[in-house]
Amino acid sequence: MDPQKEDDRSISKGGMQCSKLSFIFFFLFVTCFVPVNGFFLKSCRISKNAALCVTTFSKLKTVPQDIPPTVTGLDLSQNHILKIQPSDFPHLPDLNWLNFHQNQISQIDSFAFASLISLQKLTLNNNNLVKLVENVFGGLGNLTELRLNTNYIKKVSSTSFQSLTKLKVLDISYNKLQTITNLRLILQHLPQLQELAVKGNGFKSFQSKELTNHTLSLRALDFFSNPFRDFRLTEDIFPSLTRFTIGDPFSNKVMKWDVSNKTFLSGVSSLDISSLYMALDDKKALLEAVNASLTSLTLNRMKRMKYTLTTLINSSCSIPTMSSLQIRHNRLQFIYLSTFKLCVYVTTLDLAENYLETIPENVFAPMERLKVLTLSYNRFKKVPPAIGNMPNLSKLDLSANKITAVDCQEFSNQTKLIELNMHNNSIQTLKPCVFKDLVQLQILRLQYNAITDLDGAFKKPLPNLKHLYLNGNKLTSIKNEVFRGLRSLLNLSLHENQIKELYSDSFVGLRNLTEIQLMSNQITKQNLDTGAFNALVNLKRLDLAINHIKYTDSEALSQTPFFNLSHLEELSIATQHYREKSHLPCNFLKGLTNLLRFSARNTQIVYLDKDMFKYSPKLEKLDISSNDLGTLSPQLFSPIQNLKSLYISRTTLQSLDFLIDANLTNLQFLQARKNQYSVITEDVIQSLPSLGYVDFQGNSFMCDCDNAWFLNWTISSAQTQVFDAYNFVCNYPEDFKGTKLLDFNLTSCSVEIGFICFVSTTCMILCFMVMSFTYHFMRWQLYCAYYLFLAWLFDKKHQNKQAPHQYDAFISYNTHDEPWVIGELLPKLEGEQGWRLCLHHRDFEPGKPIVENITDAIYGSRKTICVVSHRYLKSEWCSREVQTASFRLFDEQKDVLILVFLEDIPTYLLSPYFRMRKLLKKQTYLSWPRAAEHPEVFWEKLRQALQTGDDLKEENACLNVLQTP
């Protein structure tokens, strides 16, 4: 390749215009020294109202120091923080929620949280704490909830909890506490404690007499998974206790129970003795102690009992107040007919996860008050016949079994059933009569079965059904008014099926439906053209994501798919399966006058018509990310002035300048990640006065003075949070590639005004003095020199005018455009029109310097034709050719330039090329792409331009018929 035409990307913009720099210098002088009081953060994302700061998964090793003092919540979970000390929280007076979940904290200094005077909730779960030092929580007088779950704490200092006088909830489960002494050191300072969880520690004995000096207001006590050998309650230290949990699934020794007075636990209403390994007599004694108030009993994992579970169940059911019974994870496999004979007061029964395959038909007959029955995660192959003997059931859970079919009589007696859950079974078909008697049913869950055909199951009225879940099945079509009987239905879930056919009668009867989920199916645009959604006149949310909806052009549809959905507020067609380029018809949203949220994410759209949103003027949230749009028109946003959230990430945008004229004054949230722009201008940001949050992650920024305003705004803005700005990376110029944008030194963009004034004044005075002395002492010499110069200049111009031109035109082009020059331009101008052209590869003199060859070719030709393309603009040698031709234009006052654009280049892309942009303001030009339909006109205009004379007025008069910018 000839070096004249090599592409050369400029490393820096050394030739930036002085006037532009002057403005930047002044702005930086004014703003760089203003105290920063915004919420640009290195490691934290703040909610819109600055109430919550989230910095999870950031690999932080210390608490960040740039947290705004206005935050009320701080989430530092899942980082690598090792230590907490008082200096970590210099000034957070309003913070009331702090989360250190899952770090590596092994040390907390005394009074580490003392400055957090408003803190109410502190979470330190899943860390490496071994000891709580003196006054570790000193100063937290307003703390009400403290969680220390899953650490290694085995020692507590006497003053660790001294300041927590208002604490109500304490969870110190799964640590290494082993003695009541540790518990006493905790409880002695917590007069208002209501909930205490000490699960999974190492307590082997509980003696109430060791806590007799403390008044405890506990309402909930959880001792689960502690290896108790004995539990002795000889004093009434828990007068307010209502929830009590005790038991150890890992213990192999019987626990001794000793409650000296049955009234000590008389207030307990919820009792969980799962996995409690204790003698039957002691268990009966425990049940007698709570006999007066027990309402809920949990008997999970009772596999190691040496007596029957039936005995314990009937002992508990004899308590008149007991209404809820949970018996999970017991591997029952079979239930005896007498198991629940005394449970006449029970209203809620949970038998999940018990490996049940069958149960006696009349096993629940004594439970006339039973309303809620859970039989999930068992091994039933059909609906147990015992269900038919419970006419008062309101909720039935048969999920996660092996039921393959449902007969018509199995729910015939459930006229009061409100919720039926049969998800995650193996049901393949639904008979038309299966739900006919469930007249009170409101919620029906049939998701994740193998249903292929609804077979009229919902044609018969279910007048009160409001929520129907059919997702995760194998439905392929919806037709024949299949939901006709569901006139009260509000929510319909059909996602994750195989639906590929919709008809005009698919949803007839669902006039009250407000939400339908159809994502992850095989729906096409042909299905939308059937008018399937016309019957859903009250629909508010429609999700069609992950389907096969594809349009090949943006032409208006004769019949739009949503014209009857005037109440729709949310529509999603995001994340399609296909990867071919697509369009959206310009009237795709016609009829959606109340649409608030629209997502067309990752649909491979290449163009959006400017009238796309004129049918949805109330739109507030728009997501068009992950499309190949390249550019957006400001007119696209004119109809949606209420827009508050805009997602335009990964859309190959070259610039955000479209926002300047979009007039989005209400926009509050902007996500514009991973695009192709490198400069954020002041005009873009100033056009969004309500902006509170912006995300520019993953863009290739330019480290030069063009971004100086953006850098200062990022740091100093008190209104807008620039998410993750600390990690913005420069990609241009080459010297700064890979460096952080915020590390760019702005001093090179600013100049001390006082110094400028001093230098300017000094230079002016010196120049004035030199000129005065020169004029005074060398006046006549200057006169002579002036007239000699005029004579030489006149002679030089006269010689140029008389010298004949060797060529009619010199062709300036980039090597990549040579095929067009050789194949199109040369045959026309030399072959057909007879012009003598100068081309560098043919007519340059070998061995002569390139600059001299260029100069001789331009001055030795009547005209210079510049063949302009994107590569031409980036070429250093092409730039020199334009510069030389411009000097000739200035020197001879002749219009010797003809501009021919091979590609459509927007004006804003010419802004970095000052000389070309200046020429366009004065010169007319020819456009090859616009001459596609009439190429003969193009060649005629080019011939006329070459034929014009040297007079500038004559040239302009001839070229005024050409394309102008």
UniProtKB/TrEMBL annotation:
Topology versus the membrane: Single-pass type I membrane protein
Keyword Transmembrane among record annotations: yes
Keywords for this protein: Glycoprotein, Immunity, Inflammatory response, Innate immunity, Leucine-rich repeat, Membrane, Receptor, Repeat, Signal, Transmembrane, Transmembrane helix
Subcellular location: Membrane
One Pfam short name: TIR
GO molecular function: signaling receptor activity
GO BP terms, alphabetized: inflammatory response; innate immune response; signal transduction
InterPro entries: Cys-rich_flank_reg_C, Leu-rich_rpt, Leu-rich_rpt_typical-subtyp, LRR_dom_sf, TIR_dom, Toll_tir_struct_dom_sf
Chain ranges passing through the membrane: 21-41, 753-770
Residue intervals of the TIR domain: 805-946
Gene3D superfamilies given in the database record: Ribonuclease Inhibitor, Toll/interleukin-1 receptor homology (TIR) domain
Main location: membrane
GO cellular component, one term: plasma membrane
Similarity comment: family membership: Belongs to the Toll-like receptor family.
Name of protein: Toll-like receptor 22
Organism: Kryptolebias marmoratus (Mangrove killifish)
